[in-house]
Amino acid sequence: MSALKIALTKGRTEKQVLPLLEASGIDCTAIRNKQRRLIFNDLPDYHFILAKGPDVLTYLNRGAMDIGIVGSDILEEQHNEQYEMLDLQTGKCHFVLASTPDFDPYQVKRKIIATKYPSITQRYFRSIGEDVEIIKIEGSVELAPLVGLADAIVDIVETGTTLKENNLQVFATLQSVSTRLVVNRLALKQHQNAIQQLITNLQQAIQTEV
């Protein structure tokens, strides 16, 4: 049997998921000692790459990887064509609508919303029947309402510390975010037993962590 090819989101997701992978029986020593390496073919059953979140889904959609481990924010924002198989219960946070204390979310006007996630933001405001102008921001989105670029922001919040430090407050919670295991459709047919065994092992590891 050929090794399962897994794309793991590097950075915080990587650090949070490695203990689960290890608890499921996968030796992650090479990844922990990676230095500048991005490809890990050391194990006979699992080959890993480390990639940015949006790229994980691209590798998966193009069939270059069998499995992706990525935040649900990426899955919601991009077009996910694959099977979302498991919530890994890590990276938990929320999408929120936030602004300065004088912001009135009920004011009748076409609001300007700054965000890194225009698709998620658009769907939210459509769901509440409100038409807004969306500005996509790549950097520190918290700046937008402070300098008058936007009326409010939609962003991911874990503890809310950054918002408080910038004198911003939450006006609505849109949805929860966590890390998910996603499987390429063709790979699931070709490696069904191996993938199902990995999922079972991860489920047991999650239960132990909980």
TrEMBL record:
<keyword id="KW-0028">Amino-acid biosynthesis</keyword>
<keyword id="KW-0963">Cytoplasm</keyword>
<feature type="domain" description="ATP phosphoribosyltransferase catalytic">
    <location>
        <begin position="54"/>
        <end position="203"/>
    </location>
</feature>
<comment type="function">
    <text>Catalyzes the condensation of ATP and 5-phosphoribose 1-diphosphate to form N'-(5'-phosphoribosyl)-ATP (PR-ATP). Has a crucial role in the pathway because the rate of histidine biosynthesis seems to be controlled primarily by regulation of HisG enzymatic activity.</text>
</comment>
<comment type="subunit">
    <text>Heteromultimer composed of HisG and HisZ subunits.</text>
</comment>
<keyword id="KW-0368">Histidine biosynthesis</keyword>
<dbReference type="GO" id="GO:0005737">
    <property type="term" value="C:cytoplasm"/>
</dbReference>
<dbReference type="Pfam" id="PF01634">
    <property type="entry name" value="HisG"/>
</dbReference>
<keyword id="KW-0328">Glycosyltransferase</keyword>
<protein>
    <recommendedName>
        <fullName>ATP phosphoribosyltransferase</fullName>
        <ecNumber>2.4.2.17</ecNumber>
    </recommendedName>
</protein>
<dbReference type="GO" id="GO:0005524">
    <property type="term" value="F:ATP binding"/>
</dbReference>
<keyword id="KW-0067">ATP-binding</keyword>
<dbReference type="GO" id="GO:0003879">
    <property type="term" value="F:ATP phosphoribosyltransferase activity"/>
</dbReference>
<dbReference type="InterPro" id="IPR018198">
    <property type="entry name" value="ATP_PRibTrfase_CS"/>
</dbReference>
<dbReference type="GO" id="GO:0000105">
    <property type="term" value="P:L-histidine biosynthetic process"/>
</dbReference>
<dbReference type="InterPro" id="IPR013820">
    <property type="entry name" value="ATP_PRibTrfase_cat"/>
</dbReference>
<keyword id="KW-0808">Transferase</keyword>
<comment type="pathway">
    <text>Amino-acid biosynthesis; L-histidine biosynthesis; L-histidine from 5-phospho-alpha-D-ribose 1-diphosphate: step 1/9.</text>
</comment>
<dbReference type="InterPro" id="IPR024893">
    <property type="entry name" value="ATP_PRibTrfase_HisG_short"/>
</dbReference>
<keyword id="KW-0547">Nucleotide-binding</keyword>
<dbReference type="InterPro" id="IPR001348">
    <property type="entry name" value="ATP_PRibTrfase_HisG"/>
</dbReference>
<comment type="similarity">
    <text>Belongs to the ATP phosphoribosyltransferase family. Short subfamily.</text>
</comment>
